[in-house]
Amino acid sequence: MNSPSPIRAEKTTHLLLVDDDPDFRDALGKQLVHAGYTVALAGDGNEAIDWLRQETPDLVILDIVMPNKEGLETISALRRSHPKLPVIAISGGGRIDARDYLHLAENLGAVAVLAKPFPFTDLVKQITKALAARA
């Protein structure tokens, strides 16, 4: 199992991006870094939980449909271990429509949800809103 790889930026806001699609994860991670965030990357919920045992980001961006430990299970685990950590859930769907997964994520405590594909500006707005609410 690979540990999440950090991508560094100057801004002090630390994000954990969890998505099983390496191309999507790397591209979105680079966009977030370009926007000024420090980003750690994880490929599934297990990697995310392992990383969170040693570090605590300001916010988690979490895909829902993933192998191993999927997003809904990961949100439940995060609510137990890090109850105040904001989570933004993202999904392109799977066996059911993305909106259904995202509705479940909200019920489990995600502070915002976005269906893939989404405009990057929408994600930045949700990050800003979630961090402001946490402060």
Task: Write a brief structural summary.
By secondary structure, the protein is an alpha/beta fold. The chain has helices at residues 22-34, 45-52, 71-81, 98-108, 120-134, and strands at residues 5-7, 14-18, 38-42, 59-63, 87-91, 112-115.
Supply the number of helical segments.
5
Helix and strand sequence: EEHEHEHEHEH
Kindly state the number of beta strands: 6
Determine Rg (CA atoms, Å): 13 Å
CATH class: Alpha Beta
What does this structure look like?
The chain has 135 residues and is of the alpha/beta class. The protein has one domain: Rossmann fold, CATH 3.40.50. Helix content is 43%, strand content 20%. The protein contains 5 helices and 6 strands; from the N terminus they run ββαβαβαβαβα. It has helices at residues 22-34, 45-52, 71-81, 98-108, 120-134, and strands spanning 5-7, 14-18, 38-42, 59-63, 87-91, 112-115. A 6-stranded mixed sheet has the order 1-3-2-4-5-6, with helices on both faces. Strand 5, helix 4 (98-108) and strand 6 (112-115) form a beta-alpha-beta unit. Helix 2 (45-52) packs parallel to helix 3 (71-81) and helix 3 (71-81) runs parallel beside helix 4 (98-108). It is globular, with a radius of gyration of 13 Å. The chain starts with a strand and ends with a helix. The mean pLDDT is 90.
